[in-house]
Amino acid sequence: MTAPWSEDQVSALAPDASSLSAARKLAGRWRGTGQLDTALWGLCQGSGSKPYQTIVDLAGPAYKCSCPSRKFPCKHALSLLLTWSGGAVTESTAIADFAAEWINARAARAAEPTATRTTNPATAEQRRVRVTAGLEELDVWLGDQVRTGLAQSDRSFQAFETIAARMVDAQAPGVASALRQLPTAVVTRSDWPDVVLAEYARLHLLIAAHRRLDDLSPELRAGVRTHIGYPIPAETVRAEPAVRDQWQVLGIRTSADERLYTRRTWLYGRQTRRWALLLEHSFGAPNFSAEVPMPGMMADADLHYYPGGAPLRALWGERHGAAEPFTTLPVAEGTIAVALAEHAKALGGDPWLRSRPMLLTGVVPGWTESGWYITESDGTALPVAATEQPWRLLGVSGGHPVTLAADWGIAGLIPISVFTAGEVVDVGGAESAPRQVSNAAAAPVSEDLTSVALLGTARRALDPARLEAPVAAAAARLRTDPALLLLESAALRGAFARGGVSAATATTPEPAEDDARRLLPRAAATRLARMLRDRSAFLPEWFAAATPFDYRAPDALCALLLEQAKAHTELREPLLRLAGARGRWLADQHPEWRDLVRYSDAAPTEQSWQFGQPPERREWLTDLRRRDPDAARTALAASWPKESGPLKAELLAVLAEGISAADEPLLEAALDDRRSDVRRVAAGLLPLLPNSAFAQRMTRRASAWVQVEHLLLHRNLVVRVPESLDDADRRDGITDRTVEFTYRWDGAPDLRAGRLRQLVAATPLAHWESELGAPDKAIQAKISDRFRQPLFDGWVDAALARHDPTWARALFEAGVPTDLAMLRRRELFALLALPDRTRHLLQLDGAWLSELEALLPAVGHPWPETLAQHLILLLFERARAAAKRPESHGSSPSAHRSLLSAAAVHLPVGAARAATLVARRCDDPNWERAFDQLAHDLNHRSMMLEELR
User: Fold this and answer.
1) What is the pTM of this model?
2) Vertex 226, ends 221 and 231: CA angle to 5°?
3) Long-range Cβ contacts of 176-183 (<8 Å, 24+ apart)
4) Sequence-separated (6 or more) residues with CB below 8 Å from residue 215
5) DSSP code for 556
6) How confident is the model at residue 671 (pLDDT cuts 50, 70, 90)?
7) What is the DSSP string of 604-621?
8) CA 623/CA 627 separation, integer angstroms
9) SS3 label, residue 17
10) Closest Cα to residue 912, out of 897, 932, 892, 884?
């Protein structure tokens, strides 16, 4: 039986993120799954009556599915592979009937002898003639460009496309590809003259080498043919001598150019110390072979290198065992000096080489004003390509030495992976998408050469004596045509500069502090990264469950955590706590993350209060208020005369925690503040002090504005709110805020109703109890229709502000006469004891699903088990109704999408079994899928929580 692939291997096959996300949601819908050798199959229930038949040939891999999707693999194939990866597919003794025909047909085709392709000498000669003619035409065009002057030449997309199309006709696709990348460089780069001249010189040198193709060494001849684009059959490559080694996978990158996907896999030989690059292409979807091990794995295998002067690209040969992980990375000499020397040697064998991987040990990445550098302990450094932003690499390093695998080329280093603590870490990450090395990077050219090329050799001649001595000496022996002399001199200058490049110098950052906390388990870290990128609704539960363990995140995850903390303030605190010391260090390096973390784990000091920024001062006061309320009030009172701006109201609001009678003088003083937001905060806090002078003033005002008439059978409320407010009313926070309170009477805004609501909200509830009796009696008092709603709204405001469960119960049971009744009822409902809340919801039947959905958020997390079973049964009733009357309104799962989503987040994870059982009893396929999805989400949460333990 073929060993199941890892989830990462399956994920790498997905054509896009949406397909992978959709595939995960299909878990639980599979029937009749099985595996035999390389055949994998299963039935997935879709929207129709017949399930989709999905088949995977693991040897390809290849896929077949009866769904109409044009993506390969489709979400059903991906889901089947994920199910198999999770161990939920058992081995079978025979292939299912619906899969056998396709699997057997593929096996038969694979068994047919493959005809060996032999190149017809006449055809090969014809191609060479066509290539030669096209290249000669290109050489004339190149000469005309620099003769006229780059500044005067046509640099439009159409101009480059015309000559590139000519190269395609001439069967030189490699040359055409290089030309097609130049228009982008012309438009986007300020140094475009250097880029264009360097590429023109490179192509001219390639054309010159092609003229003498028969005189070149076999290795150089093969390199020239490769760069031009001559095809090399795989049989020819496999005929090359095999190089057996334990090949360690150090990186994989997948890029896309329109619908052509390219996967690059970098291998490093454990014994030979040789690099190899596996290059694979797939059109339409990234359907790459699964035989390539993941980074961090090692395969004992033969490789066959493509012929060339500096062989790098290779094909798999015979495998000598299964892949296994490695924890050491032997490197002969991983210094920058040795790497540059090896690169120069490779350029000597292939002067058209654009980039080559190198392995650097004991290096530290860092950001300087001049850009990114990879630096050794003595300051020797290499620049990182300007297109890269390797923040994940910096997070992994933390200022400490690491072993780095990177591509070195004209543009600089492009990090591939970092080897640290015995594992390979991909440093491409979410913050930088995989990209291939640009073919339009500028080779080092002199200022004189570029200025002559811009003006044109027809206007200004090149003086070779101004070039470096070796280049000048070689240029003196070249032809006399000024245009071709310029191109050849530029080619010589580029090869000379690239081969003799010297290292730069840079300083390394101070290393990050150690974090002694336990490391987040690998499985939990992988899941967290996926949930953060998907903005999963389960993130709050994950962080709540992880908080007691006080884990620290893996260093490779810090950049993603900071990126998410910057974008999502509601998760900022747990994200930063998880990032820990490494996250704070990394945030301090990044200009956009620097404000996220301002000080260390130690409690904020008084320096923060005296000289800190507003967030620091507010946090210091909040922390002190929590520990010593009196000290916090004293500190605020001392600084109160000097406070200004919006922060003044924010600092006053800190007194809400642990508010007491001792806070009253400061709050009373705040009622006279010039800022309206400060006065509003003070007026909102003073009602929380029932024995304060403010409460007494509001009680007297309530007695004057709302008079109680004790009639025989009931109490009647007579409202006498004044037509205008005096200064004392305004000082106590009663205003005509028509924007906030949009009461209307006789078609016009009712200011008196708004004043009544503010009065009732600020008056102690004990006053109404003394006048009207217990809350359940008070709400039965009669009042005119005009003032009934503002009266009840004021009582609700007061009950919520004071967290009074007795008033909350009375108002909830009476109903709240307002347009926002359901939202207000939920807030009141939340103040009831949990058994009372549960009891009320259990009394609701299927006719009250809307009420149930509105009140469930006030139950807490997770919902009680009895409530979970009740809700599943109510939904099952809807499913049965949908099966009986498919066209009835409101019976489909889409009509209850929000309730199902909330259930997935808040049901206890043990309810997954009940959801699965109900799904099997559903006759409606839509509801069956809905319950399967619910069970899948609950199982996902269960695994999520289990991984944290």
Assistant:
1) 0.81
2) 110
3) 176/229, 177/229, 177/439, 178/202, 178/203, 178/439, 178/440, 179/203, 181/438, 181/439, 181/440, 182/440, 183/155, 183/156, 183/157
4) none
5) G
6) very high
7) P-HHHHHH--HHHHHHHH
8) 6
9) helix
10) 932
- The number of beta carbons lying within 10 Å of the beta carbon of residue 186 is 17
Instruction: Determine contact, residues 236/218, Cβ cutoff 8 Å.
Output: no
**Burial bucket for residue 69 (CB in 10 Å: 0-12, 13-18, 19+):** middle
The residue type found at 379 is G
DSSP classification of residue 141: H
The region that residue 78 occupies, defined by phi over 0 for left and psi between -120 and 50 for alpha, beta otherwise, is alpha
What is the residue whose two structure tokens read 């030979």? 272
Cβ proximity of 925 and 913 under 8 Å: no
Instruction: Count other Cβ atoms within 10 Å, centred on residue 271.
Output: 10
Query: Phi and psi at residue 227, in whole multiples of 5°?
Result: -65, -30
Q: Is the pLDDT of residue 383 over 80?
A: yes
Q: Which residues of 799-835 are buried (b: 16+ CB within 10 A; e: fewer)?
A: bbbbebbebbbbbbeeebeeeeeeebbbbbbbbbeee
- CA dist., res. 144 & res. 395, Å (int): 50
pLDDT, greater one: 52 or 15: 52
8 Å CB contact between 816 and 792: yes
81, two tokens: 């592979």
Q: Find the mean pLDDT for residues 633-660.
A: 93
Domain range annotation of the chain: 7-111, 134-228+444-499, 234-326, 522-596, 606-689, 690-832, 833-949
Place of tokens 């194939």: 77
For residue 772, give the amino acid letter.
Answer: L
Q: Quick one: tokens of 817?
A: 């006469």
Total length of the chain: 949
Structure tokens given for 128: 């060479």
Q: Which of 280, 275, 258 is nearest to 13 (CA)?
A: 280
Average pLDDT over residues 778-794: 92
Beta carbons of 178 and 199 less than 8 angstroms apart? yes
Of the candidates 456, 451, 410, which has an alpha carbon nearest to the alpha carbon of residue 153? 456
* Nearest one of 134, 215, 211 to 176, comparing CA atoms: 134
Written as six digits, the tokens of 457 are 């050799």
Which residue bears the tokens 């050491």?
328
CA distance 397 to 406: 15
DSSP count for the chain of H helices, then E strands? 40, 21
Residue ranges of alpha helices (H) inside 44-169 are 75-85, 97-111, 121-148, 157-169
DSSP string across 264-320: EEEEEETTT--EEEEEEEEESS----TTSPPTTEEEEEEEEEPPSSS--BEEEEEE-
Spatial distance between the Cα atoms of 203 and 608, rounded to a whole number of angstroms: 62
For the stretch 54-86, pLDDT in tens is 999 887 778 899 888 877 788 899 999 988 888
Q: What share of the chain is helix, strand, coil (3-state, %, to 5)?
A: 50, 15, 35
Q: Among positive and negative, which fits the CA dihedral 755, 756, 757, 759?
A: positive
For the segment 355-371, the average pLDDT, to the nearest whole number, is 92
Which token pair is 26? 């299909």
Task: Tell me the C-alpha distance between 381 and 507, whole Å.
Answer: 9
Distances (CA, A) of 211 to 199, 206, 225, 241, 876: 19, 9, 12, 29, 79
Write the CA distances from 412 to 229, 354, 437, 904, integer angstroms. 25, 11, 10, 48
Cα 85 to Cα 218: distance, rounded to the nearest angstrom: 46
Rounded CA-CA distance 660/642 in Å is 24
**895: amino acid identity, one letter:** A
* Residue with the two structure tokens 């409530």: 867
Find tokens 């390093």 and name the residue.
Answer: 397
The structure tokens listed for 663 are: 């806070």
Whole-number Å distance between alpha carbons of 644 and 649: 9
Rounded to an integer, the average pLDDT of 271-283 is: 92
